[in-house]
Write a structure and sequence with these properties.
rod-shaped; 124 residues; 3 helices; mainly alpha; 0% strand
């Protein structure tokens, strides 16, 4: 009797539907991963460009302030030293607040992932 239960045309049809469904589900998953990755990478690249421009602006601002303080105090070296000290203090503040800064960026990342999931058409 077991030999009579071999693949019939009906089970072959179900197997082909099942395999097509699995392939489609895998493709859909890959596309959703691509979408999320592209969204995250575009946001990260935007932030990197923004940070680079901000660093250049901050550099020139520090240089201008160093020259100005140097003229006011009569010593350019003193102006550069004061701006260096300001940069060191700023760096110390950033290092001391590293936990809060990391938590802030983690929350932004999670929010971006949630927004991508919320805006997909196939998840209802």
């Amino acid at each position: 009797m077991e030999k009579e239960k071999e693949n019939t045309p009906i089970t072959e049809t179900h197997n082909s539907y099942l395999s097509r469904y699995a392939i489609t589900a895998i493709r859909l998953f890959k596309l959703s991963v691509y979408e999320k990755t592209a969204y995250i990478l575009s946001a990260v690249s935007y932030v990197i460009v923004l940070l680079c421009v901000s660093v250049v602006i901050l550099f020139f601002l520090f240089m201008a302030m160093a020259v100005y303080i140097g003229e006011v105090w009569g010593s350019e070296a003193m102006g550069y030293a004061m701006m260096c000290m300001c940069a060191i203090v700023g760096l110390a503040v950033i290092i001391s607040m590293s936990r809060c800064i990391k938590r802030y960026f983690i929350n932004i990342f999670i929010e971006m992932m949630y927004d991508v999931n919320k805006n997909t058409d196939y998840e209802k």
